[in-house]
Write a structure and sequence with these properties.
Elements: H1 2-32, H2 34-50, E1 54-62, E2 70-79, E3 84-95, H3 97-102, E4 105-113, E5 116-120, H4 129-134, H5 137-142, E6 165-182, E7 195-197, E8 203-223, E9 230-242, E10 248-250, E11 252-260, E12 263-273, E13 276-285, E14 293-304, E15 318-329, E16 332-344, E17 347-358, E18 361-374, E19 391-401
Parallel strand pairs: 4-6, 5-6
Antiparallel strand pairs: 1-2, 2-3, 3-4, 3-5, 6-8, 7-8, 8-9, 9-10, 9-11, 11-12, 12-13, 13-14, 14-15, 15-16, 16-17, 17-18, 18-19
Helix pairs in contact: 1-2
């Protein structure tokens, strides 16, 4: 009996060694030989292409050894309508073998050079192109609300995709993003937004563009069972924005971003502007037929007013401290002061309440505590200069419009 057990262990050891040698040989063949690399790279392309509804074009695909990743060159992703969603000079990435065997796609150490992305929803379309390209039709059909009109409670789970698509350790260099959305019906005030013409040459789309994007992601979950939209862990982000006639610059940002249907939510631990730093929440919504609405809740310590002059160029140069809110839509901007302190060479103000700035100026239960405030600060806000000069100290409450004010 003991001799039989010894022979069994001996043959078992030999089989294990032989099996291990075969696995090592297969691994070498698959990762280091030309034929093996070509086979694996074809499988990678098939998995990437299978993760989208549309067309993937790659001019060249190469790898110095699959353990060291592979490189796509001249990459284009088109939707089923043939329109370009993404173009990139090159994409270098590694791939998780275990995830590939499970049928998922997990890309690691991703580097994208000069990607150009277009997010659009044309007037005759129900969903944005990114939803149509990356979310399976079976998942879309199972969702109760339309994909671009999610309710306020965005944590609802739909059927979602069966496969997972994740980017880990992604870095983006010199990217650009254009967002094109239908103008709200009957929109007249077009001087405050950027527009693109339709086929008839008339303004049809609102354009929001972001240039010179440099981005570092800890992880981006593009698709996952039970998840709506995408999730991004932002380690660093900088860009130049073209959302209103005057561009603005974000020097750095860190936090989490998620998109669900016609809504993008960002929780920013830091937001670096050219002259100041702040933090807070950003909620962007673009429900069909309602235009674009941006809600910001932040905390300034301090915020240089010149850093938000692209929103309202009549603001004086100075600083804001404390909590504040902004609501921006197609009609203008509502400044929500929450015991916010404003200081400048023209004096000081502690404010609570709302100030609406658009074609007309409106006050919404605005309470001000004034400290040596120079009356000249009002000159950019009134049609006729006030017929007096001096400084104000004390309390002031305002509600209504400028037409309802009398001096």
């Amino acid at each position: 009996m003991k001799a039989w057990m010894r022979r069994l262990r001996k043959w078992g050891t030999r089989f294990a060694l032989a099996f291990g040698m075969v696995l090592i040989l297969l691994l070498i063949l698959a990762t280091q030989t030309t034929a093996g690399k070509e086979l694996v790279l074809r499988e990678v392309l098939a998995r990437v292409g299978g993760a989208i509804a549309g067309e993937l074009e790659v001019d060249e695909l190469s790898s110095p050894g699959l353990f060291r990743g592979f490189t796509f060159r001249d990459v284009t992703i088109r939707g089923e309508d043939g329109k370009v969603f993404l173009q990139a000079d090159s994409i270098r990435t590694g791939i998780s073998g275990p995830a590939l065997l499970r049928g998922d796609l997990v890309l690691t150490r991703v580097h994208l050079w000069k990607p150009q992305v277009t997010l659009e929803r044309l007037p005759d379309q129900e969903r944005m192109n990114v939803v149509s390209i990356f979310v399976p039709k079976s998942a879309l059909d199972s969702l109760t609300p339309p994909a671009d009109t999610l309710p306020e409670a965005t944590g609802e789970e739909g059927a979602g995709p069966r496969r997972t698509v994740i980017l880990r350790g992604a870095v983006l260099y010199e990217g650009s993003l254009d967002i094109l959305l239908p103008l709200a019906p009957g929109r007249q005030n077009l001087d405050r937004v950027l527009v693109e013409p339709g086929d008839d040459g008339r303004p049809a789309l609102r354009r929001m563009s972001f240039r010179d994007i440099d981005l570092e992601l800890g992880q981006a979950i593009l698709r996952s069972p039970g998840q709506r939209g995408e999730r991004f862990e932002v380690q660093n982000l900088s860009f130049t924005g073209e959302v209103w006639p005057d561009p603005f610059r974000v020097s750095g940002a860190e936090g989490e971003i998620r998109r669900e249907g016609g809504r993008l939510l960002a929780s920013l631990r830091t937001l670096d502007l050219p002259n100041s730093q702040t933090q807070g929440m950003v909620d962007v919504q673009w429900a069909k037929g309602a235009g674009v609405r941006v809600v910001v809740q932040g905390d300034a310590d301090p915020l240089a007013l010149q850093d938000i002059s692209f929103i309202e160029d009549r603001l004086p140069r100075g600083n804001a401290r404390g909590p504040f809110g902004l609501v921006l839509d197609d009609d203008g901007v509502l400044l929500d002061f929450q015991d916010t302190e404003l200081t400048s060479e023209s004096g000081g103000i502690r404010a609570r309440g709302g100030l609406f700035l658009g074609r007309d100026i409106g006050f919404r239960d605005l309470a001000l505590e004034l400290t040596a405030l120079d009356l000249a600060v009002t000159d950019p806000w009134v049609v006729d200069t006030l017929p007096l000069r001096g400084w104000l100290d004390g309390s002031l409450s305002l509600s209504g419009t400028m037409d309802e004010l009398e001096v």
